[in-house]
Every structure is written in C-alpha cells, then in structure tokens.
C-alpha cells in the first residue's frame, strides 16, 4: 500500500476511490431503471422504447464507469500501484468491462426485433453480470484498502 500520509489523505478519501464511488452509484441507478423497464408490460407498444432508453442510459453509465476506473489515475491503476499482488483480479475486472460492453450492445441490437421473453432473459443476464462485476470491484477495494466502497 502506498504511503499517503504526506498528504494526510487515506485511500478511502483519495480522488480515484471517490470518483469510482460516484460512478458506482450512477451505474446502480441505471441498472435499477433497466430492471423497471424490463418488468413493464411487453404488450404495450412503448415497452421496447422504454427498454431501449434504459439500455442506452445503462451503456452511458457503464462507459463512464470504465473510463473512470481504467484511467491512468483511476482506481484500477491505484490498486495496481499499491497492491500488485491483486493484479490478476484487476485484469479480470478489465476483461469483464469488454464482455459486459458486448452484452449490453447485444441487448440493444436485439431491440430492433424484440422477442419479449428472450430480451427479458438477456437483460436479466446483463443485470446479473453487472451485479457480480460490482461485487467483485467492491471486494477488490476491500482487499486492497480494507475500505467498503459503499453505494447502493
């Protein structure tokens, strides 16, 4: 762990962790909105429009998350610098970013000709994968700094 005592700031108060917290909350809100949209009545003509909008918002929130934590001064770089022993877990999270982006994009593409049961299943798969990713990120932060990243 790096010595941040010169600045009087512990890792739980650092800018990379705080920025990751903000993105974490934004991503959770987008996931919740997607869940509400997916649960709507698929017979309603506005259902696929609502789902399309929620998936677009999720994509924006996820891209912001990825840009923030993968930045050269982002949380993943900080963890790598402070705790190189966690490099395989950091690499796994980075790889998940690619996979999750592809999953979100695949769901969005399926909305051109949606089959409600199938698209709901795919949306659920994305939400489960994102929830697991968020938990893995929180576990990584805790392992590195003994800090709960918090957020919903």
Protein model, in words:
This protein is elongated. The two termini are 26 Å apart. The protein has one domain: Four Helix Bundle (Hemerythrin (Met), subunit A) (Up-down Bundle), CATH 1.20.120. The protein is mainly alpha-helical. The chain has helices at residues 15-38, 47-70, 75-82, 87-110, 116-145. Mean pLDDT is 88; it is low at 1-10. Helix 1 (15-38) runs antiparallel to helix 2 and helix 2 packs antiparallel against helix 4 (87-110).
Helix and strand arrangement:
Blueprint: H1 15-38, H2 47-70, H3 75-82, H4 87-110, H5 116-145
Helix pairs in contact: 1-2, 1-5, 2-4, 4-5
Short précis:
The protein has helices spanning 15-38, 47-70, 75-82, 87-110, 116-145. The protein has 152 residues and is mostly helical.
Radius of gyration: 17 Å
Structural class: mainly alpha
Number of domains: 1
Low-confidence stretches: 1-10
CATH class: Mainly Alpha
CATH topology: Four Helix Bundle (Hemerythrin (Met), subunit A)
Series of H and E elements: HHHHH
Strand content: under 5%
Largest sheet report: none
Number of strands: 0
N→C terminal distance: 26 Å
Counting DSSP H or I runs of 4 or more residues, the number of helices is 5
Helix content: over 70%
CATH architecture grouping: Up-down Bundle
Q: Taking all residues together, what is the mean pLDDT? A: 88
Shape: elongated
């Amino acid at each position: 762990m790096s010595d941040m005592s010169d600045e009087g700031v512990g890792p739980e108060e650092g800018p990379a962790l705080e920025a990751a917290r903000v993105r974490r909350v934004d991503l959770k809100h987008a996931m919740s909105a997607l869940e509400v949209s997916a649960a709507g009545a698929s017979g309603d003509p506005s259902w696929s429009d609502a789902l399309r909008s929620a998936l677009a918002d999720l994509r924006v929130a996820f891209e912001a998350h990825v840009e923030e934590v993968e930045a050269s001064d982002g949380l993943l770089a900080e963890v790598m610098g402070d705790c190189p022993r966690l490099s395989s877990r950091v690499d796994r999270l980075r790889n998940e970013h690619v996979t999750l982006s592809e999953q979100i994009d695949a769901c969005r593409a399926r909305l051109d000709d949606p089959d409600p049961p199938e698209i709901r299943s795919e949306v659920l798969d994305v939400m489960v994968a994102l929830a697991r990713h968020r938990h893995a990120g929180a576990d990584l932060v805790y392992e590195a700094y003994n800090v709960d990243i918090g957020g919903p």
